[in-house]
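Protocol step 6 of 9: fold each sequence in the batch and record its structure tokens directly after the sequence line. For illustration, a two-sequence batch is reproduced in full.

Sequence one:
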Amino acid sequence: MARQSVFVFLLIGFAVVGLVGMAWSPAWYLQLIIVPLLALGLRDAMQTKHTVLRNFPIIGHFRYLIEHFRPEIQQYLIESNLDAYPVEREYRALIYQRAKGELETKPFGTQRDVYRPGYEWAAHVTTPAPLLEEEPRIDIGGKDCGKPYSSSLLNVSAMSFGSLSKNAIMALNRGAAEGGFAHNTGEGGVSRYHLEGGGDLIWQIGSGYFGCRTPEGRFNPERFGETATGETVRMIELKLSQGAKPGAGGILPGPKVSREIAEAREVPAGEACISPAAHSAFSTPSELMEFIGQLRDLSGGKPVGIKFCMGRISDFMAMCRAMLDTGIRPDFITVDGGEGGTGAAPLEFTNSLGMPKRDAIVTVHDILTGTGLRDDIKIFCSGKILSAFHMIRALALGADGCNSARGMMFALGCIQSLSCNNNTCPTGVTTQNPSLVRGLVVDDKAPRVARYHRKTIESLIKMLSAMGLSHTDEIRPHHIYRRATELNVSTFADLYNFLEPGQLLDETNGQGPFGDSWRTARSDRWD
């Protein structure tokens, strides 16, 4: 109620002035101010385009006033050489424009310091290649997969019902259905809001086995099979860890576990919902592969993959050893960077655990290539994927596709109020407060999600053309440059060492930097 206090105050003021005006006619002049503001408040509360105005009548206009002057404020920060200007804010503005269908062009060229270490760019050619006529897609599914899936290069990354509101889930899913891309459920189970829009789903299974668990919290094969064989569930993703809090479990406090969330997760309403730090369905690399095979069989042959933030390289070596020993492979691997986001995580975990995504993609791609497994497994990248260039950079390092959570949240209207963890999100994206959730109008936001996806893919295709490439399969590390110092520039091919196919399996011809770890890797234990 406090957030609409201005609106309520105007209503009371209008009534008071009206009563006073009956005895003192000059008081009617005050209504020249109150009546227009009251009308503005009613309009704000009833419109469906702007969530902040819908949730915060009248006072929400101050936010848009500040946004109107943002280019001037940003330019001042840049000219003042302040490090307080975050690049991500620039991409947020781009996503807003893209999602709303507004003009994306920008005057006066780049505002980046192009001679600052870390600046990256793609090499273009004098004669661009013809534009792709259709969106490139990825076929996912190995030899044991009976129902392969044709995936977009950009999908909605994992965000569960509970971390997001029901309206946010419905908008994302309808947007995915309209745009022809996939929506990852996050580890909170498949809720009815994931199913209403008819969008393709990637069902993520975490250590809590929400939506497919026994009362004791262990994996329930029967419940899994019932949901996994559903028409809209296209792929299964087994989450081992995530970039924002690798090696840690999770907890949804009891007050936030509503009846609907409890139904989706198959837990008691009102009680804390806990995800353990480790899985109980397997304890060795070989058991992990056998569990992947079980999930594939129970789902009717759908693609099954794993998601993790790269930690000890020896652990992934052990997984690859188990793939070779058991003959069972995941159909895809989602590599989450240590810079990935979340609604709530310990600060030390967020800042100081987990390999950044660029290094992690190269490592996963390299080890799969060196063990001869790369052709059987697709790689997805997640963690601050916001633009077409971010996608191209990931593909140059070895990824096949990308997932975005942050970008999709911006398309929904997220303003980064940093209130995800206290249930007060002003845009209704990451809250379960009904009065705030109502501000996010699904019919308005779903097309924005689809539009952001479509325009980002279109931008990707145009950048490919400018780079002289005919398909995303042609992107290589030497196409991307990175400034190391003010005077030194290298390509990704110069910065990273890439293994040859099968190199780790050939002990007579030099196994590269991972040789020692590979020789000691075992499939019956995590080393």
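Sequence two, same batch, same settings:
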Amino acid sequence: MPVHHSDASVLRSGTGVHAPSLARAEVRETHTAIVFFAGDRAYKVKKPVDLGFLDYSTVAARRAACERELALNRRFAPDVYLGLGEIRSPGTEASEPLVVMRRMPADRRLSLLVREGAAIDDVLRAVARQLAACHAGAPHSREIDEQGTRDALSCRWEASFAQVRALADDGSAPDGVEEIERLVRRYLAGRKQLFDTRIEQGRVVDGHGDLLSEDVFCLDDGPRILDCLEFDDHLRYVDGLDDAAFLAMDLEQLGAPEAAAFFLAQYSEYSGDPAPPSLWHHYVAYRAFVRAKVSLIQARQGASGAEAASRRLATTALRHLRASAVGVTLVGGLPGSGKSALSAALADRMGVTLLSSDRLRKELAGIPAEQSAAAGYSEGLYTAEWTARTYEALLDRASALLSCGESVVLDATWSDTGQREAAVRTAETTSADLVALHCQVPSDVSASRLKTRAPGASDADLDVASAMAAKEPPWTDAVTIDTSGALESAVVQALAAVRSSGTGRVPVFRRPYMEPD
């Protein structure tokens, strides 16, 4: 601060109100600003710092930042941001610009309410509604849309990786950062279509950019959302879900994952956002990593506990990136092996899309899934040509979903080596993780099932199953799942196989309410 004895200073406010002596003010400090609280006002002074990603080293730069902060924050809380003021020492023309604000009641800060265990569902619902409304009314432009591309997000991640490495004492990456980098790059590599679609849907907005619970005040007449990001427009031009994910990440850091899930679900509902859970996770991870970087900066400035906070936030980022991994799970096996029952239960448990070859085959033939098309082995709808057409369509649909961030379970026999190899290529081209599960039961169990099962999408009988078994090649890359017992036992085996595949992609958040597993 250029003025050390604030009681001897003159404060002028654009609101025409003179502040009480700042010598008696309460003070709060961040890595970029100092805020004085006096009476019913708050006065925010920018620090004269150059952090690379922002430069407040000159008075002119700080004044411009104050003016920009006022204009941008009035979108969210017009009755809080009152005007531009200045502080000046007697006998000098030098002045320091500051933002004059209406003081918010500290006991209504959302972060405090969370720590106290207060009921906050109504507050979070109101914040989600207000944020969605602001996003819906935000302007759109080519410049804004450009920041929502896959490549723009990739550049922001890469910049943060470089900054975190530079902040490390020896220049090496802190624990977990190498895996974070790998998972981020893999997710983004296969998801260009997802981000292009988000832009087409108008999801990229001029948002808040720094939505933290300590900047949300829960007043009787509605929430006040303060302190949006003003130092770089491009960092504020974000996907609306990215904006909302910042608060979800912060709530999770406060020990309230259920509140985080509830808030994102409410935002998705009010905004009508169909985003896949993988994108929710990716954005929460991104916000956690940004905060980890900020905590490292604060640690270098001597802030107590900042280094531990950085490690905790990096762990959060890594956990969500593992959950965001997009994957394709092949569930195969001979007729009567229970593969379709397992596929349905597994897709439901994981909250992902199920695609069935039996249903798709009949859809391509233009007949209802439950209508019988029974035929002998390799006859009717089950010739080699029909089967090739069915698997090609199955993998085409899977590819489209994977490219848009949706994980899939593919229910088919997968009894042909060429079909399995095609599935591997689909996973590779969409940067998706592949897990293959091979359902197996004793022959007497499958025979009993085939003789007693009700009519459905599958037409295979015992003769067809026997003919297929005689030609089925070994599937050495698949995890064998014993499906002779209870369905839940098979589901447990399958989930363990997915988790142990190294992706950890069983979701933390699930539709429609995103409740934690």
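Proceed to step 7 once all outputs are recorded. Observation for sequence two: Residues 1-10, 13-19, 508-517 have pLDDT under 50 and may be disordered.
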